[in-house]
């Protein structure tokens, strides 16, 4: 009787293994079918195949990448239609699931960032890049992207801090300092909510950065051009328009000196550009 019981258990176990093996085999067939449907741009049908395959074999982690790419194929970048928002969410979720198992897959990481940007999910992209920099603190390309995203999100001070960090990592790169000068000018020139005190700080920060850029590269025409623009901003602090706001008598010489310096730098930038052809 005992022998019969043991034999029954063994038979049941073998049958279970057979069903498991059969299920995994069928899962791989469905992945292949899903790939063929994806290649034929039949994305909805491909998704159904991939999901069915994962139900049969949850260890097929690569299929989450397939699903992520398929949802990306359905998504219309920039669209705010509920269906597209859903596709974007699904694509991001699947790519994140895949990256739990294959964190170093550069292509998949690139797809995830692309989805964040296409779906205007800047905060997610910022969090992604900041997490990346915790592991790779000297990755200047990511610092640049992170600073740009902060600037696009209207968070100027965070953007400036990351541009400065990039310059710290690349102290001999003139372009790293040039970018700081450019964004300081943009903030002082374009944003009406900037106070005179803030403008003074911005102009000083930008000027110092551009002077460093020209020290490293004396033929940096664009750096001289933005120094010219910052001197014009300094003049505006005295009078934004002399026809409307007369220049105080004790400030006329200072005002004119800023404009003269601006013109000198502008001429230098033009001359350097001509010399460079």
Describe the structure.
There is one protein chain. This protein has about 280 residues and is mainly α. The longest helix has about 40 residues, at about 1-40. It has two domains: about 20-120, Serine Threonine Protein Phosphatase 5, Tetratricopeptide repeat; about 170-275, no CATH class. Helix content is about 80%, strand content about 0%.
Annotation keywords:
12 helices; mainly alpha; 277 residues; Serine Threonine Protein Phosphatase 5, Tetratricopeptide repeat
Query: Distance N terminus to C terminus?
Result: 99 Å
By secondary-structure content and strand pairing, the structural class works out as: mainly alpha
Tally of helical runs: 12
Nearest-integer average pLDDT: 90
Oligomer: single chain
What is the tally of beta strands? 0
| Low-confidence segments | 13-20
Instruction: State the share of residues found in helices, binned by percent.
Output: over 70%
Topology as H/E string? HHHHHHHHHHHH
Number of domains: 2
| Overall 3D shape | elongated
Radius of gyration: 30 Å
Percent of residues in β-strands: under 5%
The main pleated sheet reads as:
none
